[in-house]
Amino acid sequence: MVIEIKELTKKFNGELAVDRLSLTIEQGEFFALLGENGAGKTTTIKMLSCLLAPTSGDALMLGDSIVENPLAVKKKMNLSPQETAIARNLSVKENLEFIAKIYGSSKQETKQKTEELIRKFGLEDYAGKKAKNLSGGWQRRLSIAMAMISEPEIIFLDEPTVGLDVRARIDLWKILLQLKGDITIILTTHYLEEVEALADRIGIMQAGRLRALGTLEDLQERTGLEKLQDIFIQLTEEEEGP
Amino acid sequence: MKALAFAGRNRKEILRDPLTLLLGVVMPVAMLWLFSSLEGIMPLDLFTIEKLTPGMIVFSFSFITLFSGMLLGRDKTTSFLMRIFASPMKASEYLIGYAIPLLPVALFQVLVCYGAGVLLGFPVDIHALTGFGVLLIISLLYIGSGLALGTYFTDRQVGGIFAIFVNITTWLSGIWFSPSMIGGAFEQAANLLPFVHAVDAARAAFTGGFTQLLEPLLWVIGYTIVIFGLAIVGFRKKMKGSK
Prior knowledge:
The structure holds two protein chains of two kinds. Chain A is an alpha/beta fold.
């Protein structure tokens, strides 16, 4: 397994944000983490990407502990944050080169990886354009390409398609489908059709706890419902009940 | 290497913003010309080009505080900082990366304002080299102030706080009038802050008054260390994570 999460817990001022989360994610898996706002998805991703220290528990990322050895973990993973995190006054090419360099790539490697990512993400026509002049969809595409340039074994995508129009979202799905299988992807999203289209396995969080875990078929079987939207509503309502 | 790559990105972000040139260079030069021309109407000692040029260079550094504070604050607001915090860079590399690109900006401000001063009659002599060195030390005070503001506040908040900051550096720096003219609490406040000392140190350096240089420069260095310390503490706290 690539990720082994063990009793991961985070409290903010005594209030539980993530409550004893335990699960494993396999090599090359596309894992979707679902939940309402405040369910603990982003906090979980921040802990797994060593941006937030857990209150208790741990997670092993390709064998390295996020608590004991965060620097080793950071070298193997990358993330595309919820908001588009790009350097606005740098061109598309410069953004990619910059991230490659801070992950330790040599000049030659940087050039090679940048060209490769520009081609893979269809950014050829925009390579010299300043990132701030791109549309929202292209900025997201760049943001994900920036996460990919360090050649991570694990990538976190925190709501990568939020705010995009239908066409830009579907274009981005195509890109994500290309990545599937090569690296381990952990996706958080509010768009359930995105999960149906992309994810191998789904985890549903509510109030910091993992409420359900399995493939779409597993969840359909457990609830007797067909649509992920209905499954999600039922599973999260169970917890909210009187 | 990583710090230099990060510095390169920050340099491009700052220099590609037209406001950098307008606020950091054009405005101080215009003010230098304006106030030096007032000397004929209001024959104040402070409006002589010898006093005004070093003072105006120090004033131009206020905008470095704005540039560095806004850049760091914006990186925080847009999650860019989150992206680079997730990289295997260390806290020292981040701070070096933010601070380094501002030194050439400060040097550029020094050279342009000095050049403008010379055109307006500022004497050219060997002490200018000491002046440049002292001014670069002073610029660290303003770079550190920006980093501290950007660490603790968002870009929008930095914009608002800078309006107060630039007023303080204007009124309590002794560039246009000596705080002793008002006296009392105003003078005491000015002397407790580093800005008037920064201007005194710059003026002393350009005139070769080394005996008058040491004390104000020590004030500036002391404040710079404290302000950088505050920025480092805040930055490390941010790196450990917040909600």
